[in-house]
Design goal:
The protein is built from no helices and 16 strands. By secondary structure, the protein is an all-beta fold.
Length: 134
């Protein structure tokens, strides 16, 4: 870090939404975001989004990487990867090049289409959506 010139570009900020916090509206962040409370609105970051166990996100997620142990009600678009860990629950679709779900993660969607989480990338480099049904 170059403190003489006031340059703090080497530090990456993390936005933390605490357990007892409810946020309504769109969140746009440059750095990583961790949600342990409730967000009612979209979350947009080109970096990492962590949804903690017990956290609730009601809105769409746009991020570089998403790692979730909580509940997401909305669609996820991730440029790098999505990981749904054992206690995660997702009601929506996923669009990402790499998708991983632990045993115990709950995936649901309002459509009746079959799930293909391992679809290959389309010719233009975009990931095909993964839809999950219970």
């Amino acid at each position: 870090m170059d403190t003489q010139n006031g340059n703090t570009s080497s530090l990456q900020a993390m936005t933390i939404i605490g357990e007892d916090t409810v946020i309504t509206g769109t969140i746009r962040a440059e750095g990583a975001v961790r949600v342990d409370g409730r967000v009612e609105g979209d979350i947009c970051t080109e970096s990492l989004l962590i949804v903690g166990e017990g956290a609730i996100v009601v809105g769409n997620v746009y991020a570089g990487t998403v790692v979730s142990r909580g509940l997401i009600v909305g669609d996820i678009v991730a440029s790098e990867e999505v990981q749904l860990l054992d206690s995660a629950s997702l009601n929506g679709t996923v669009r990402t090049p790499v998708f991983m779900a632990d045993e115990g993660a709950l995936l649901t969607d309002d459509t009746d289409e079959p799930v293909f989480a391992d679809e290959e990338l389309s010719g233009n480099g975009d990931a095909s959506p993964a839809r999950a049904v219970a």
